[in-house]
């Protein structure tokens, strides 16, 4: 996401929820202070973070509880696989 006045990236954060049954859904999304709060809560709970401003910008356009679009399945699957790996878990 870009600020039209300064053409700089707007800080954004998106949290995904994956139940192993359906495609991941948007669990939380926000910019600026809300993005910082999402990141803080994730860190508090040991949730792995993945930083990619372009991907966050795309996902931030979706609504809460909306499934990620099919075009993002592969990239999100790779991120989730890595997150499970570093936590020593496997998707259920």
What's the gist of this structure?
By secondary structure, the protein is an alpha+beta fold.
What do you see in this structure?
With 92 residues, the chain is of the alpha+beta class. It has a single domain, classed as secretion proteins EscU (name from scop), CATH 3.40.1690.10. Helix content is 38%, strand content 14%. The longest helix has 14 residues. The protein is globular and about 35 Å long. The protein starts with 11 loop residues before the first strand and ends in a 6-residue tail after the last helix.
Strand order of the biggest β-sheet = 1-2
Unreliable sequence segments: none
Sequence of secondary-structure elements: EEHHH
Tell me the span between the first and last alpha carbons: 33 Å
Number of domains: 1
Largest sheet descriptor: 2 strands, antiparallel
Structural classification: alpha+beta
Mean pLDDT: 90
Fraction in helix: 25-40%
In terms of topology, how is this protein built?
Elements: E1 12-17, E2 25-31, H1 32-44, H2 53-60, H3 73-86
Keywords: Bacterial flagellum protein export, Protein transport, Transport
Family: Belongs to the type III secretion exporter family.
Organism: Marinobacter excellens LAMA 842
Fill in the keyword field for this structure.
92 residues, two-stranded antiparallel sheet, 2 strands
